[in-house]
Amino acid sequence: MMRTPRHAARVVILSPTGSVFLFREDNVEVGIHWLPPGGGIDPGESPEDCVRRELREETGWTDLEPERLLCTWEHDFTHQGIPVRQHEHIFVTTGPHREPVLEAPDIHWQWLSPQRLATLGEPLWPPRLANLLADTPAEPVHLGLLA
Fold it and tell me: In what residue span(s) does the Nudix hydrolase domain sit (predicted)?
């Protein structure tokens, strides 16, 4: 099947206690999954600029900056009815343990402890996120194409 390339960027926010801020989505195209804030990179936008924009749009936070690239990965799914192969940049930053300023009724979020993240029992994007955060690599890791 031919897939349209799509580029995205996300940011994992770690609280001072090590909890991770994630969204829990349940949609007809992908089903239930947890993922960091972020989304598609607009034309002419850098992955870092995408993360800043998406954080503002999804949480209302404007005071966080991507600190470093944790990993990249690709995955296939259907986005708005179009089969895509998405290449994602996953950044990490630290921030206060707080609620989003903007809260859309269809977006559910939670701060998850490292223990809860490791035993989630529901799909996590990227799938190896809990392991990467438990043993943070010195250099960004390319995870490749993951299901």
Answer: 4-134
